[in-house]
Structure formats: structure tokens, C-alpha cells
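Aim 2, interim progress. The first record below pairs a target sequence with its C-alpha cells.
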Amino acid sequence: MAVLSDPGRSEAVLVGVHDCVNLEKLPAVARNLVGLREALTDPAVWALPDEACTVLSRPGSAGQVLDTVRERARKARDTLLIYYAGHGLTDPHTDELSLALPDSDREREYTSLRYEYLRRAVLDPRAGVRRTVVILDVVGLAVPWRAGLVVCASSGGGVCEGGQVVADVPGRLVGVEAGDVYGEDLPGGGGQ
């Protein structure tokens, strides 16, 4: 029998980067943040307390995102939900996934948030969370997110243990659950 998450012991961090200096603007991302926050705090949906749903729209730095995630991971006792919407970037040398920030540039990979750092923030040893869900609503990846998944899947459990990662890559649903990588082409998608 599935046990539902306790919203009173859960936390959410919603990160959206809709207006980048060097990348295509994504106006829908700002609306998505508002709509998702409303849904998560709606008593008919999840009833997450307002103070447990942190929204970072156009965060100023990777540190701001990572510090917030680490703080919320330490506070949550049931479920930690991380949502990122924006550009996904692939390091041209390592194929590692990075998440764009407002000043990110494809040719300067150090200007983005490496997904590995986000994973480490979620895995903070002082975090007492039972379940973690990471949702990446990313656009602009030059290659499927396979490389980012391998980091998670090969990390000895990591985020995947008791949680899952889902990436919305155009035309393809890709995810990791309990360490298993899966993917499927979506109808009309053009996935790899």
C-alpha cells in the first residue's frame, strides 16, 4: 500500500530561470513557477504550507540555489521536492548536465549550476528526508540527458535511493528510479 507524503513534514524548492542574458528567454517558466506553487499549496492537491514552498525565480547564483536546497533538505522529514525549469546545458568536455542561471553562457560552462552540485546538496548527510523527487523541466540540451542520469545512477544510490529524478527532454521522458535508468519516446516527440 502506498503511503502519501505528509505535507506538514515536507518541503519544496521551485527554481525557474526564464530570462537569461545569453540564452533564449523562456516566458512560460515564470508562469510555471506560479502555477506549480499554487498547486502544491492548494489543500485539494497537496496542502504544502506556504512557508514550506520556496520559489527562486532567476536566482542570483549557484550558491543561492544550493544553500536553499541544503537548508530545505535538512528541514524536511518526509518529502523533498526540487523543481528546476530553464535551460539544460551539457558540458562539451565531460557531457555533464548543468542548469542555466540568468548569466549562463554555453561557451562558459562555469557560469551554470552543475547538476552534480545539486545532487550533493540533496544528499547532505544532515538531511533527514525520507523521499526526494527532483523534476527537471529543461530545454536546449544538445544531447539526451543520458550523461546526467549516469551520474545519479552510478552514485551508489544517491538521490535515486528512496527518490526519483525525472527530466523532461523535448520528445522524450527520461528518468531514474531506485537507480534504474529508463526512457521512452513520447508520442509525436522525436526523442532519441
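The second target in this work package is listed in the same format:
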Amino acid sequence: METIEVDNIEDFLRLIKARKAESTAAGNCEDFLFRGQVMDSPLLPKICRLRAKGDILETERKLLSEFKRTNPLLIEQLRPMDDWDYLTLGQHFGLPTRLLDWTNNALTALWFATSNIDTYIPVAGDHAIVWLLMAEREDFNLDLETTHPFDVAQTKLIRPRIIKQRINNQSGVFSVLSTSDLEEKRFMNESDSYNRKLVKIKIPEASFADIRNDLNTVGVNAFTIFPELEGLCSYLQWRYFD
């Protein structure tokens, strides 16, 4: 896995363009994936970052069951069709799942890395991270119609059904941890299948403000990423307050 530091949008895009040219020349036509993080932490879904009160697989089953049972009137209006849809909704609203958020949009990932939504919480460390995953066709080789989310044998990538506008605006993709990787809490960036396909891009904190301004200039801000009142209010706060 390669680690590179950049401090402006121009170098960020130049790096991605160079890696894309190399990947295309090698015969890989899949889209790159990106994940922005405000801190330098490994690639591990939320359910693995918490300490379960019992067996983690049993906890996962209970979480999904209770999520579906407790208030169906809030969920059914979004018309979930299967447990993949329910997990997508749960992930969207903060439920601990084995899914990890990625995006096809490099600038969206850069916004998430450099835009601390809660300005009262300090940035952890002096760098943010954008993970670049040079995905290959085999990484998406998972039949969602015949495979239950809890029966995934190998960690894979999936494109969820668009059941919320926010997923579409963020060009959302998920990695789904295999059951064995979930039990062992194995980092995706240490996996033999993905380590060589990853680039860790470090963004120094001193460049955050300039990057956020440049992102807004090209139309990437809280409201374009969160197209709801929450996103609008966050954008207006950023625009009119230091």
C-alpha cells in the first residue's frame, strides 16, 4: 500500500489521474472508489469498532431484527425490498453494520476528509485521510439476490439500491465485510485482496480551509452532499461563520 501526502485539490486530482492512467493501461476499466476520513484510522466498519455485549454475529442479527421490528412505519415508507436495503438504511442512519461507506466521487471523499461537520469536536491528529481503492471487476462479484448479507464468504464491494437521495448525491458504494473478517475484526487495508489496490492520501490540517473553499467553488459543499435541511443549515453555518 502506497502513502502520499497532498495539500491542494490540484495535486489531489493529478495523483488520481496518474493512477487511473496506469490502471487503465493495465486493462482495469473499473471506477476508482474513495473514502474520506477526518482521522488516520484503519478501514473497519462501525460494528467492529464497538464492543458488543455478547457474540458479535448474534448481536448483528439482533440489531437487524430490532431495526426492522421496532418502528416499521418509519422504515416502510422508504420501501425496502430485502435485508440489503434494510442494512443500507441502517447504515445511512447510524446503525452499526458490517458495511463501510465509499464513493465514486473523489471530491466528495475530500470534502468528508476536510470538513469536520461538528466544529466543536477538534480534528484528531494533524492529517485527514482519503483512501483511494483501485477496484477490480472481481471485487464486485457478489450476487445480492442469492446471498444474504450475513452469509458473505469474502469481503466484497456492492452498489446499493438508491432508496435515499443522499446515497445518489454521494455516489455511494459499500464494502461488505465477510463473516470471517467480521469475527476477527480484520482491517480491509491489511487484507491480501485489497492492500495492493489501496493508496492512502494524507491531507495536512493546515490545508483544510483552502481545500474547503476550493471545493465550494466547484460545487461541493454540505448542501450538495446532504440535500436536506440538515445539509443546508450546515452549509450556511460554514458560509457565514468562522
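The chain has a mean pLDDT of 88. This observation will shape the mutagenesis plan for the next reporting period.
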